[in-house]
Amino acid sequence: MREVLILLKPRLWSFKNRIVSRTGKRRTFRIILFGTIGPAFWAGIFWIFYRLLTYFKSFEGFGDILAYKLLSMALITFFSLLLFSGILTSLSKLYLSKDLDLVHAMPVSRSKIFLARWMESTLDSSWMVLVYSLPIFLSYGLVYQKGVIYYAIL
Amino acid sequence: MIELHHLSKRYGDLTAVNRLSLSVERGEVFGFIGPNGAGKTTTLRMIGGVLAPTEGSVVIGGINMAQEPEKAKRQIGFIPDRPFLYEKLTGMEFLRFTADLYGHGDGVFSAKAERVLKQFSLSDWADELIESYSHGMKQRLLMASTLLHDPEVLVIDEPMVGLDPAGIRMVKKLLRDLAQKETTIFMSTHTLEVAEDVCDRIGVIHKGVMIAIGTLQELKHRAQIEEGDLEEIFMILTEAEPTV
To answer: How far apart are CA A138 and CA A50, in angstroms?
Structure first.
């Protein structure tokens, strides 16, 4: 496991250096841009779904079916997104990365290189879907007053 | 120190390297020359453990690369022809990354890193991002990272590409010094003058087949010329089709 973590270090250090090295107006602009658009979009999704589910719930019996169908559609969409994104990211990480020769020349087994690449591609392909699916599941939980287990599974 | 036994690499119908066998002794500098597409890089990648051979075996210091790849690679420093460096890391971070993978990350790292950075005139750039380095500096950093774990075998593909005259002189001296310290060097080059200056023995590969091997004098004898440099020998030897 130690070697897998070492293989992930360049990625983490590069991320840190990207943040630290950006200076002046460009850095401020990016912080403002992603600091406002991202949360605004997240809040927008939450608001729309919260209103929609509250509206559905107001219909006795039929509303629950609608909410269930909506949740099913959302899950299928996320699953498809994760699947395609995962395939593309994995192919590029496993076969097209420019650092493959470098890491294969190092004294580390192929299985550990594969594991490190798999972890990277899993994170790369799914973080955005996870972050932006959260307001949907959160609004569902709030409207239908789900318990602690629901949020724990989430 | 390096033994190649009937080494072959095929890509579909194309045979890049065909039943190559040779042995390089400890402390020897072996030069590998040949025209473009002769199979030099493929051979070096197989020796470095980056590419698996279709047939045959690579043995480094008595360790079979196919059976114990990690143990064999631990003895090698491999510098490819198109080296990759993580542009968003600093020179020191890159050295730390390679040292960690070779298990030299603790205790001795700082002293070793400072030594190699000084040796390659990169001390002032240690904490700068690699993206700000020139091509020659990147090449030197890669060499520094390769020598950090004191490899017993150095495999270098085109060591002089992108280096200025001072850099070339430095690398030549470095190779000679390493050979004196019993490091085995296997290098491919198009710079025949370098091969002539540095190598103890030279192998000429053409269309995947080793067509000549020996010292400069032996190659001259093989090419049937009394005078002339390696370039002339190379032209004579590669003119004829190799016999498979």
So the answer is: 9
